[in-house]
Design goal:
The complex is a heterodimer of chains A (210) and B (380). Chain A is α/β, with parallel strands linked by helices and 210 residues long. Chain A has helices at 3-15, 18-30, 35-55, 61-82, 104-115, 129-139, 154-167, 183-192, 200-209; strands at residues 91-96, 119-122, 143-147, 172-176, 195-196. A five-stranded parallel β-sheet of chain A has the order 2-1-3-4-5, with helices on both faces. The longest helix of chain A is centred in the middle third of the chain and has 22 residues, at 61-82. The model of chain A has no long low-confidence stretch (mean pLDDT 90). The model of chain B has no long low-confidence stretch (mean pLDDT 85). The chains are: A alpha/beta (210), B alpha+beta (380).
C-alpha cells in the first residue's frame, strides 16, 4: 500500500476524521485491493501504530478509543466482500479472553475465517467463560480461536486454556494477540499444546492447508 | 495568590487554560473569550448573547440569578463546533461593569458518556456484522431457492405440457366414443394441467427475476395502440363473463420505450384480474394519461374493492386478497408480483387506489423519456 495513502489514513484516524478514513478504504476497495491486504496493511497496522502512540504518550486513551471506534465502523465497509465467499462447511468460534475489552483483533480474525469460506462465530469482548464453553459445545467448531490483547489478561487465559483443553480434549485451539508477542509467553503456550499465530497472514496459511 | 500570581493565572487562563472563560457585559453580551473557548466553539463569540450559546430547553437558566451566588455551580450544556452538547460546571462572578464566567468540563459525566458511547459503538458494530453475515447467508439461500424452483419448474413443465396436450388430443380424437363421465375426466385433466402449466411459468418468471435475470428488450412503441391491442385480446374473456371493457380516455404521446412482451404480461394481468373480479353486467374502464414525466395506464374494475391493509402486500409473491376468487377462476398469487418486478425493471411504478364508490383502480407508470439503450434496473 502506498505510504502516502497510509499516512493520510493514520493522520485522519488519530484526528477523528472518519470521512477521510472512509475515503481511503473506499479508494482501496475501488482499486480491488485484496480484502486481507486492507485488513493487514490498513486496519491491523493502524491499530498497532495507535497502540504504540498511546504507549509513548503521543495520544490519550480517549483518542485510542476513538480510533478503535472508527476502525470498527470501517470494517463494515468491507463486509459485503467478506461475506460473499462461498462456505466450505468449516466453522470457527472466535472469542476474546474473559476480562479482555479489546475486541477488534478478534473481530478481524473472525472476518479472516469468513474470507477463507469458514463460518466465523464471533463472541465479542469480555466473553463470559460459560458463554464460551456453551458456544463450543453447541457449534462443535473445527477451530477455537482466543484473542488476548492486554498482558493483564494473560493471568486468566492460561487457566482458561487448561479448562478448555480438559473439557474439549480433541478441540483445535489457536491463540493470538499482542499480549502473546513476548517470547517467554509463547514458550509457555507451546508447552500447553495450544498453537500461537502471530498474524492474519499466518492464519490464512493455516486455513489454506487445514 | 499575590497580584503577580493572579496576573499569571489570568494570563494562563486566557492562553492555555482547559476551562471556558467568557467576559460578559452586564446585559450578558460576550465581550471576550479565552483560547480554549474559541477552540471549543470554533468561532469568536464576541457580540453574541451568552444565553444563545446554551442548550437550555427548559429555560431554567437566568444570568441575574446566576451572579447572585458565585459559589453556586450551574450545570450548563454548551454545543461544541462539532455540534455536540458538552456539560460544564459554570460559575458566574459579577461586578458593576462586567460578568466573568468560568466553565469546567464535567469530567465525570464526560468519562461516563465516553464509556457508554464506546460500548454502544462496539455493540452496534457487532450487531451490524451479524446482520451483514445473516443477510449474505439469506441471499445465498434465496439464490439456491430460486435455482431449485427454476430447475424444478423447468423439468416439470415438459411432462405436464405433454399431459395437457395428450388430454386435448384424446378429447378431439375419441370424443365420440367416450361416455360423458370419461369426457369430463379428460376435460378436467386438461384444465388442471393447464393451471399447473400457468403456475410453473409464473414460478420460472419469478425465479428468473429474483436471480437478477430480468432481460428487457426495450424498443419504442405507441402506448395507445399497445393498450388498444391488449383490450382487444381480452375482449373474448370479458364477453364470456358478461363484462364490458371501455377505453375511456387517452391523449397523444410520443413513442414510449418498453419491452412490449413484458408490459403485455403486466397489462394482461391487470385486465384479466379486473374482468375476473367484476360482476356480470359490470364495466372495466382503461385510461392512458400523462403524469409528469411518466405515462400512466390505469384499469378500473367494478369489483368489491381491495381493503386498504391488503394493498401493499398484494404485490408480494403468493399473496391474495380476502375477496374470494370468482367461481371457475384460479389464481397462482404470482401475477401481481411478476407485474411489479417488470414495471420496476422499467424504472416505473405500479400501485392500486380505491375507485370512487366501489371497485379498485390498478395502475402502472412508465418513464416517457427513457433512452432506448438504457439498462434495465433490477427489482429489489
Amino acid at each position: 500500500m502506498e505510504k502516502r495513502l497510509y499516512k493520510n489514513y493514520i493522520d485522519a484516524l488519530v484526528s477523528g476524521d472518519r470521512r477521510v478514513c472512509q475515503e481511503v478504504v473506499d479508494q482501496l476497495l475501488q482499486e480491488d485491493t485484496p480484502v486481507l491486504d486492507i485488513y493487514v496493511h490498513v486496519f491491523q497496522q493502524s491499530m498497532y501504530d495507535v497502540g504504540r502512540m498511546w504507549e509513548d504518550g503521543v495520544i490519550s486513551v480517549a483518542v485510542e478509543h476513538m480510533a478503535t471506534a472508527i476502525t470498527e465502523r470501517l470494517l463494515a465497509m468491507v463486509y459485503p466482500r467478506i461475506f460473499q465467499a462461498d462456505h466450505i462447511g468449516r466453522s470457527a468460534v472466535i472469542s476474546c479472553a474473559p476480562t479482555e475489552l479489546h475486541q477488534i483483533g478478534a473481530r478481524m480474525v473472525a472476518d479472516a475465517f469468513e474470507l477463507s469460506g469458514w463460518d466465523g462465530y464471533f463472541l465479542g469482548a469480555n466473553t463470559p467463560e460459560d458463554d464460551l464453553f456453551s458456544m463450543v459445545n453447541d457449534k462443535n467448531p473445527d477451530i477455537l480461536a482466543v484473542s488476548v490483547s492486554l498482558p493483564r489478561s494473560l493471568g486468566v487465559v492460561f487457566p482458561l486454556l487448561d479448562r478448555l483443553q480438559h473439557a474439549f480434549p480433541r478441540q483445535n485451539i489457536i491463540v493470538g494477540g499482542q499480549a502473546l508477542a513476548d517470547g517467554a509467553v509463547r514458550t509457555e503456550l507451546k508447552a500447553s499444546g495450544v498453537r500461537y499465530l502471530s498474524s492474519l497472514e499466518e492464519l490464512r496459511q493455516l486455513l489454506a492447508t487445514f | 495568590m499575590n497580584s503577580t500570581g493572579t496576573h499569571n493565572f489570568d494570563s494562563y487562563l486566557q492562553r492555555h487554560g482547559g476551562i471556558l472563560h467568557f467576559t460578559l457585559d452586564r446585559e450578558g453580551v460576550v465581550i471576550e473569550t479565552n483560547r480554549y473557548t474559541r477552540d471549543f466553539l470554533g468561532e469568536d463569540t464576541a457580540g453574541r448573547q451568552f444565553t444563545d450559546l446554551l442548550v437550555d430547553f427548559s429555560g431554567r437558566f437566568s444570568l441575574s440569578e446566576a451572579i447572585k451566588d458565585p459559589d453556586k455551580p450551574w450545570r450548563l450544556d454548551i454545543t461544541s463546533a462539532q455540534g455536540w452538547p458538552h456539560t460544564f460546571n459554570v460559575h458566574f462572578y459579577g461586578n458593576d461593569t462586567s460578568i466573568s464566567v468560568f466553565g469546567e468540563s464535567d469530567q465525570k459525566y464526560d468519562a461516563l458518556l465516553q464509556e457508554n458511547l464506546i460500548q454502544l459503538n462496539t455493540e452496534f458494530s457487532n450487531m451490524s456484522r451479524d446482520l451483514q453475515k445473516k443477510t449474505a447467508e439469506l441471499e445465498k439461500l434465496n439464490e439456491l431457492k430460486n435455482r431449485f424452483i427454476g430447475t424444478a419448474a423447468h423439468d416439470l413443465r415438459n411432462p405436464i405440457g405433454a399431459i395437457r396436450n395428450l388430454a386435448e388430443v384424446l378429447l378431439e380424437d375419441i370424443s365420440g366414443t367416450l361416455d360423458l363421465e370419461h369426457a369430463e375426466i379428460l376435460t378436467m385433466i386438461g384444465t388442471a394441467s393447464g393451471s399447473v402449466l400457468t403456475l410453473l411459468d409464473d414460478l420460472l418468471t419469478i425465479a428468473r427475476i429474483e436471480s437478477g435475470k430480468l432481460e428487457l428488450r426495450l424498443g419504442p412503441h405507441d402506448i395507445v395502440d399497445f393498450v388498444r391491442d391488449s383490450i382487444r385480446m381480452n375482449r373474448i374473456f370479458a364477453t364470456k363473463r358478461g363484462v364490458v371493457v371501455r377505453f375511456d380516455r387517452f391523449e397523444d404521446f410520443p413513442k414510449v420505450v418498453f419491452d412490449r412482451s413484458k408490459i403485455d404480461q403486466v397489462m394482461n394481468n391487470l385486465l384479466s384480474n379486473a374482468i375476473k373480479y367484476s360482476p356480470a353486467g359490470g364495466e372495466v374502464v382503461v385510461s392512458v394519461f400523462r403524469s409528469g414525466d411518466y405515462v400512466t395506464v390505469s384499469v378500473q374494475d367494478d369489483g368489491p374493492g381491495i381493503p386498504g391493509a391488503e394493498r401493499e402486500r398484494l404485490f408480494k409473491p403468493f399473496s391474495r386478497t380476502s375477496n374470494p376468487v370468482p367461481e371457475g377462476e384460479s389464481s397462482t398469487g404470482l401475477g401481481l408480483a411478476i407485474a411489479r418486478n417488470i414495471v420496476v425493471g422499467h424504472l416505473g411504478e405500479i400501485g392500486i387506489t380505491n375507485a370512487e364508490g366501489h371497485g379498485s383502480v390498478f395502475y402502472f407508470s412508465l418513464p416517457l423519456n427513457r433512452p432506448e439503450g438504457d439498462t434495465p434496473s433490477q427489482p429489489s
